[in-house]
Design brief:
heterodimer, A: 13 helices, 2 strands, B: 96 residues, 21% strand, elongated
Chain lengths: 330, 96
């Protein structure tokens, strides 16, 4: 999930009779499946929660460009390079759709960036892992985008109109991302023994971090209940994680790769795979800033923001000059 | 950087391929209108989504208020005679 551990502002879900009349009317609209639009009346907690969730989601798209940008200049063929470039460009676009959705809630773009740079707003833990070989481009597209799609498809039905509409656009574009990743993996496993080893190594390193993307187990997820009542979260973390494992294991088998989990097994009774949970202490550690690439990622974003300052200022100065000239000519 | 220098917000409308009217697709920040068109091209037409783009500064849009929903739209609700199905025409007349 691109928005993990979104802190809720409320103190759990209020019973209907304990809500204020406004909040009750709002909850009725949500329960009736109505979409909430920017100028509509909404509880302050709903607004704040959404800003955090959409902001974190947007930051993930933007920071998510970095691990893949790392390989654009070193792609093995011109075609792969064009594919990867298009994918990374999409991530920038997705970040922009989401920032705009967040801004409809009354936060400015600059404020969102400032919170990212100050570390008060997070991005997905997955992007704090390094991309060491070309096979990682395959694993990221296949697993990371695969996990993101699993999370984002239900969010197309989320209660906040601008968020839901952004998700519709994103989902439409994102299935190419997962397919291009799987395509890279197919080429690697059908290549030399060394290339196949690289593919297995990439799967080994990205498997558990991908499972972490869905956030902590439901029993430890303290912020879920309110978000689900407000329909800004549709499925629980564990539901989505299970769905991801069930879909991904057969794909790994098709590739002839082994999921790095000795306890992975199909359970005929439940119709689901049983699997080992990721190491949650690692997850919390990465989220707290101690992953292998946290410092690099944040520094890259801060540098891009600082280095681009003169461009942003020059564009404003140029626009003002043009406007003044036009006014003088009238 | 102070937020007062932030590029203004623009709403983007795109006409798709099939002779439809321009449709709102989203918004973006840009320093001026030309810049907004360029950004809209990159952000909203990466897959051939349109043949024409309109941009308008968001601050220039006047919108109806959600609280006016009742007085604005309720009067149209009971005027079912504005729909063709209100009028019963015998089958003998043929297609109308």
């Amino acid at each position: 999930m691109y928005a993990q551990m979104v802190k809720s502002t409320g103190k759990g879900v209020l019973a209907r009779e304990d809500m204020s009349p406004e909040d009750r009317a709002f909850q009725d609209r949500i329960d009736a499946g109505e979409k909430i639009e920017p100028k509509d009346q909404m509880p302050e907690g709903y607004r704040k929660n959404l800003i955090r969730q959409i902001g974190q989601h947007a930051h993930s798209e933007i920071v998510g460009q970095l691990p893949e940008g790392n390989w654009i200049t070193r792609a093995p063929t011109l075609e792969r390079k064009a594919n990867l470039l298009a994918k990374v460009q999409d991530e920038a676009g997705h970040g922009l759709y989401l920032y705009c959705a967040a801004e409809t809630l009354g936060v400015s773009r600059d404020e969102l960036f400032e919170m990212l740079h100050a570390g008060t707003m997070k991005y997905s833990s997955i992007f704090n892992y390094p991309t060491l070989t070309w096979a990682d481009m395959g694993a990221v597209g296949w697993l990371v985008d695969g996990a993101a799609i699993m999370n984002q498809v239900p969010l197309q039905r989320t209660s906040y109109g601008p968020y839901a509409r952004a998700m519709v656009r994103i989902c439409k574009e994102e299935s190419f991302h997962q397919r291009q990743g799987f395509h890279i993996m197919m080429a690697m496993v059908n290549g030399t023994p060394d290339q196949k080893r690289m593919a297995q190594d990439a799967l080994n390193r990205f498997w558990y971090p991908s499972l972490m993307m869905f956030g902590p187990s439901d029993k430890d997820s303290v912020h879920s209940a309110q978000s689900m009542a407000w329909k800004i979260k549709i499925n629980t973390n564990d539901e989505l994680r299970q769905k991801f494992v069930d879909e991904t294991v057969p794909q790994a088998e098709y590739l002839g790769l082994t999921i790095p989990d000795d306890d992975l097994r199909w359970n005929e009774n439940t119709g689901h795979y049983e699997f080992t949970e990721p190491d949650w202490s690692e997850f919390h550690d990465v989220l707290a800033g101690n992953g292998p690439c946290n410092v690099d990622r944040l520094n890259a974003r801060k540098k891009a923001w600082a280095d681009g300052a003169w461009v942003r200022e020059a564009m404003v100065a140029h626009a003002e000059k043009k406007a003044a000239r036009k006014l003088a000519a009238e | 950087m102070s937020t007062s220098k932030e590029w203004p917000l623009w709403e983007v409308f795109i006409r798709g391929q099939h002779g439809m009217s321009h449709r709102h697709v989203g918004s973006l920040h840009a320093a001026d209108a030309d810049h907004a068109i360029k950004n809209a091209r990159d952000v909203y037409t990466r897959r051939n989504e349109g043949v024409s783009i309109w941009v308008v500064e968001a601050a220039r849009i006047t919108a109806s208020s959600p609280s006016d929903k009742g007085p604005m739209y309720d009067p149209a609700r009971d005027k079912v005679y504005r729909h063709p199905t209100f009028y019963d025409i015998p089958d003998d007349v043929g297609k109308m």
